[in-house]
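Take a look at my tokenised protein here and describe the backbone shape.
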Amino acid sequence: MNPLESSNILGPSIFLVNAGFIFLSIIALAVIGGLVWHYKGVLKDAKVLLGIMILLMSIPISLSFVLRKTNFLQQAYVQINVEDLIVKKVSSSSYTLIFRTSFPAIVYAVFENFDTGEVRTVLSASMAEKKIYHEITIENIGIKGGKATLFVNSKQTGKSLILN
């Protein structure tokens, strides 16, 4: 349902996070290699070596899991509240949605036409300026109308409107 999901709005930050955890994993392997080389006699036991390897490799993996599940690295994208939503009927076949967000954002609506089944993306007029006040005009809604779903920074806001 989200046509901009494949776009690279959040891509670079996610890429850097993954690269960082790969780097941490490589450091963990280097530490294991150093321990094996330094303590050749002590770490000959495969159980001790396996335990150390699992412990060191679990740190970046568990850190990655915790940070992704809590959205710690994406706090700016967690607040996707759309506030003060006003719907104005401009003509018999078009509506303008006026609202604000709690932070500068890229905003768009996905409109599903009930007549034709067509799904299209309508960008905010103020998208390039990254304002907190947004206007989205949806034209040619058809006879039966349709459903508009709002997205902020590629995240669905939970605000869906039936326009008819």
